[in-house]
Amino acid sequence: MTETSRPGAATADHGHVEVDSVVLSAELVEGGSVASHDVAEYALWLGDDALVIAQQLGWWISRAPELEEDVALGNIGLDLLGHARSLLHYAGAESGRSEDDLAYWRDEPQFRSAHLFEQPNGDFAHTIARQFIAAHYLFELYTRLQASGDATLAAIAAKSVKEVDYHRDHAVQWILRLALGTDESRRRMVTGLSDLWPYVDELFVDEPLIDRLEGVAVRPSSLRQAFDEAIVPVLAEAELDVPRGFISSGGGRGGRHSENLGFILAEMQVLARAHPGASW
Fold it and tell me: What's the predicted TM-score (pTM) here?
């Protein structure tokens, strides 16, 4: 099934929902690159972001408001899972761990995801609000990361940015559809954005690791202007204001998380931990 029949979808065939389609990026399979400790930590940040939000999106399969949204959100989740696999594979090579080791055998304080990605799905409007923020951030990040001095990160970014561009378009179309729809859909969209906006600022904080990776990592603060310039016109078209209010203290990059991550990991890791070494 393609995504072309959904409002605002990309015109290209976005593919079928198949686990087999989630493959490691060719540059990892063929190159065998091993990251330095700092580059591995940076790849872990990005991989954890993608892994956590992919896990969250899987919940919507069979629960979305439309059948085609089951497919769309499933495909977006698979794209993000593919990004996570590539990034965690690269991160793990430095310590001799696989992407599965990193996904299933770390506890909450060892994860480096930003708080936005671990926020609950909530209702459909909440999930769209989270996707709207995440996709715009990831698009700006991967656009810049293509110029990284680390060839593996640059190659992962070049592949990922094309997929995230579709995710961005999908979220924009739903923001407009919900905000300009019924009174109830608009109320839910406003609530979703208000609830998630406190977690935006953490995405653009420059941690000390970034200073050590000049020319390799993307400086988060450098992305904020482009992010705002992309977000604000969409909100204006949807007749929505940029949310105001408290700003979350963050801490995800240092392993300090909300209670939400524990529930996500419990669901994601239970099978692997109940049957160590099993394969199917």
Answer: 0.88
